[in-house]
């Protein structure tokens, strides 16, 4: 019976939302809504996919391959009704660095390996832990990525001609761009400004129109009609193929796998965070709930399939997913149709992409970078607390000056230490008079009122873990040697670790050497089992279900029927 329930829970956890939607009943009205939403998202994805691919150091067609193959699989197999998969701006820095170090073939192998890692993470049900990334870390690395994306587009925004290859790190890049400043192309600047102006203007005055596509198309028409001396997709890349390539494995060897494993782990980590964040945004917009581990499994499959067709990293994309929701999507079929519409564009209209100016795509990514930097959230975190501000600043600085993965790891570590510090700071010790135990209102402690100090009661409240153990231990050690028995009320302790258990054990052994019994009152079953596992069992300590029972037992043990005069609280 238990095995059946577990099997059913496993199947439910990994059942794609597509099957759930079809099981609910799928009719013509739902198909029409999904078709309209899929077309809307495809119109947004066409220029964005090409722009992200170019910024990542690969040809624009690879961005379309990613959106077609990855987008279809993410929607068909994923745990979110509305998730749209494809290339994402967050990957630009990592992908470009991998291409520079290992070539395109190395990038494809790293993407495939990241897919295997994501599948393993999903099957091991570790998706929940990815969501534990602190909010200041997500805001910090997103802002860092935004700055890096913008810096990568300055060359095409201004039409600069660099003496050599453009450096990857930010500071050398800025130096190279400054040295190339005399080569600025005013026509490229004009096209970029036109694109940015159209994107912003259309979004403001006609928010339901495809502003990205309108801006890119009009910029291409203006550049061609005026015969402007600007670089285009055709002049740099020779256009876009009109078909999907045949699937093929990248070159695989043990040495290459070892060399590319750090990049693969970075892709998997960022892809997991980005996709679950995107699914959470969709949940907040629709009131639905995604299945995180099923979503990670789908992301893994998509990242295995995408490089087989020449595509790059796939993840859930927040902007396109939100567009899908706002366009009235009914379920995952919208994302699948979005991929098919992109394939149709590739088959029919790919030659037209050769006329798109690179300055227009750079302007598009400049707007994306501006929107990625969550300026309001940054200001809020900087004002909220010094600790959150430090985590945000360190993550941001490491992302733009060092490495994205390093920024996430260090930011997460600082956030965890900050949390532990705050939890430990919450521990305080107060003395109260004997009336408190009788149910009277709490009053300031007066030593003259402590007539009977035979039994001392301490209440421990909150998560009792290694961060708080030192404070609690110090509070217990301050107890004088007059009491003949101790009661530790643990009814408000939801969590206890081995360090906390060792603290209680040390206190109990000291009390036993003085001949004072120790009673533990109100410990929950899980807490009691943990204490017993660490050696806290009779006669070292005695357990009672409630504080009143423990007090009565303590008084009987010392032959006293009087009300104990001291109580303490560890809050």
What does this structure look like?
The longest helix is centred in the middle third of the chain and has 33 residues. By secondary structure, the chain is of the alpha/beta class. The strands form 2 sheets. It has a 6-stranded mixed β-sheet with strand order 3-8-4-5-6-7. It has a two-stranded antiparallel ribbon with strand order 1-2. The chain has 2 domains: 300 residues, no CATH class; 142 residues, STAS domain (Transcription Regulator spoIIAA), CATH 3.30.750. The chain is elongated and about 105 Å long. The N terminus and C terminus are likely disordered. Helix 3 packs antiparallel against helix 14, helix 5 crosses helix 13 and helix 12 runs parallel beside helix 14.
Q: How is the topology of this model organized?
A:
Elements: H1 2-13, H2 17-24, H3 28-55, H4 60-77, E1 85-86, H5 92-123, H6 127-130, H7 135-158, H8 170-179, H9 186-205, H10 211-225, H11 233-237, H12 254-286, H13 292-308, E2 315-316, H14 318-326, H15 333-349, H16 358-372, H17 375-384, H18 386-401, H19 404-425, E3 429-432, E4 455-461, H20 466-477, E5 485-492, H21 498-513, E6 518-521, H22 525-533, E7 542-544, H23 547-558, E8 566-570
Helix pairs in contact: 3-4, 3-10, 3-14, 3-15, 3-16, 4-13, 4-15, 5-12, 5-13, 7-8, 7-16, 7-17, 7-18, 7-19, 9-10, 9-16, 12-13, 12-14, 17-18, 18-19, 19-20, 20-21
